[in-house]
Amino acid sequence: MFADVSFPISSYQVFTYRIPKDLSENVEIGVRVRAPFGTKENAQGVVVNLKRKAGFKGKVRSIGGIIDETPLFDETLWELINWVSRHYITPLGQVMRSAVPSQLSRSYSPPEHLLVQLNSVTAEEISALETRAPRQFQVIKLLENQETGVPVASLNSTMPNTAAVCLALEKKGYVSVARVPRIPDLSDLSITPVKKEVKFNKAQEQIVAEMEAKLRKESFSSYLLHGVTGSGKTEIYIHLAQRAEEEGRRSILLLPEIALTPQIAGRFRAVFGEKVAIWHSRMTNAERAWTWRQICSDAFTVVVGARSAIFTPLKNVGLIVVDEEQESGFKQESPAPRYHARDVALMRGKLSAALTVLAGATPSMESYYNQAMGKLNYLRLKRRYGAAKYPRVHMVNLTTEREETEDYSIILSRLLQEKMKDRLEKGEQIILLQNRRGFAPVVSCGDCGFVEMCNQCHITLTFHKAGETLKCHYCNFQKSCPTTCPSCSSTRILLGGTGTQKVEEKLVELFPEIRCVRMDSDTTRGKGAYTRILTKFSEGGYDVLLGTQMIAKGLDFPNVTLVGIINADTGLYLPDFRAGERTFQLIYQVAGRSGRGDKPGEVVIQSNNPDHSVIKAAARLDLEKYYNVCLSERRELLYVPFSWMAKVELCGKKRREVEVCAELLLKRLRDKPKHLEILGPAPCPIERLRGNYRYQIIFKSSKEKDPNGQSLHRFLQNNLVDRGFLKRQKGVTLQVDVDPVSLL
Ligand code: ADP
Ligand code: ZN
Ligand code: ZN
To answer: Which domains does the chain have, with CATH numbers?
Structure first.
């Protein structure tokens, strides 16, 4: 027998190998194998086909060994992987590399820890402890609120040496203590593992009832659940996952960036305990390998994870939820496959006959349009749960503010300062958004206008306070900040623009007593840093949480009553058709962080363009209006969701070579269907990146003429793949991005 093997290289070609006798039982489609390939003796590939004849004249080599004893995937998942390969025009071997942990070694198992859970104890028994063993009493009180076992270590924040206390309680039979593997990353997530009485209100009840009915049917159905933040969507997911579990079905919850949303994972943990697996890119290979194996052996009923969790090998999936489906974090930009987890989720839902829910407070244009066209069922939660109300929004025109205060480098307007002072006095909390890290994003000379740029990228360098360095936020190049201008030797170096560090400095200057924490990718590098910051903030350890867009998502702090957006225009004028949509969503989401509890919230938006349609609609928290404006623009220009799009990016060290290659490709593409629009080739807006010149060609195929995108796909497949254009270019690499999210 022979096997065709696909390797994780950017080639569609599969390679034929002989299957040695001793492996003939184990080599199946979907099994990963080791085989000699090129100069490598033991390259790792995946079997994509079995056949009796080699059908190949040259010397056929043999498979060296297998990596997995059984196929990694069931049929559904294998089909999904194949769909991803076709849809995103990416060789199967490459898709596999993204989908599966590189080695599934058995050698690792996570350290164990103690879990404690309350048995049935009578009220008398408990009250008897109160005076005789106050520490035991305290532990019981803590456990009373928990639905599942609680890590003993997590009780340590309330008192020392809880292990001894728990063991004493176990002797009395009041609790059970078990030693179990510490599920990677789960034990860090216990921010709010408190059991909650959930009583759905009418609107929630209706939604739950409809979705439950679909879940029972065991056929594919897809929803857009459009609910304002705080409307109880997460409670609904939890409830549905419980229903699914009762029927023996499994659930996947995708979050845009799980490290940023520990609260949601924590809430699942509170309900499903050790039955929840976490899956994200910050886990180590070993942790992922262990988790993968456990999932295969059906140890978990729920996987909560980032985009790649959509490929985890849960069997019998009944529910897939994509929370905050509009987030660009669901799109993998690099390496290939450049897949969008939301679209893969819909496909997996279809293949698994699962209830598939795309959810969010600000649906993407694509999903909003799809529900309007009847492709997604639409359900809406318009009100926040409980007393929480929409915040009141104030707009500050930064231009007039500068003139009136004669402060031309103003960061915090008078209104924002006043409101902050008020909250600080009342002991309420504040969230401030400045969507740029570092101190100053533009460093220039005050005399000749020279601007510090990255040598490798067409991007300004950002000044960072630590060590007074200049950093490129694209390629991470660093150098120390010059004290004189490299061009004219002037000493007037200006630190222009505003990053989070500058805001922080200003805060301390204005409110010397302030307890402020900065959250951006500089302060959250270490493992667990997010959780630490958020936990301390939620416990009232800080007055102000200041950060980039990472503070906008999914956070629920009842004591936050003021949100300030330092500069709403950041990102508004980027040369990308989604710039407006992103800006709107960011403002809308951050605004939603204010007034989540009983106290009413306020939002102060500072902008230089208060009359810009995007800023205006965001300030009114008026989604429909915004969608309509945006959709009509997109229709006119034939952008998503009115077309299928793809982008081919050409990239190389020499500009001329890239240009020539782009022109050559364009010539190839002359013979195109009429409804297909081709833009470019043109330099990408960020023309130079990490030392490479970048050109792009953009394809738009009208949905009216090409309802399923088949025609665009066939065109790309024929012209790029079948004719070998994707691999043959000297000095230039080509990348295809189907359904691109960013055109920068
Ligand atoms: P979303 O996911 O839409 O942002 P959440 O599910 O986080 O909303 O709900 C916001 C808050 O309201 C949470 O603290 C949640 O526990 C609470 N909540 C929502 N619905 C209910 C309900 N039916 N019963 C009790 N609490 C609820
Ligand atoms: Zn100068
Ligand atoms: Zn750079």
So the answer is: 2-99 (3.40.1440.60), 112-181 (1.10.10), 189-381 (3.40.50.300), 392-440+497-632 (3.40.50.300), 642-738 (3.30.70.600)
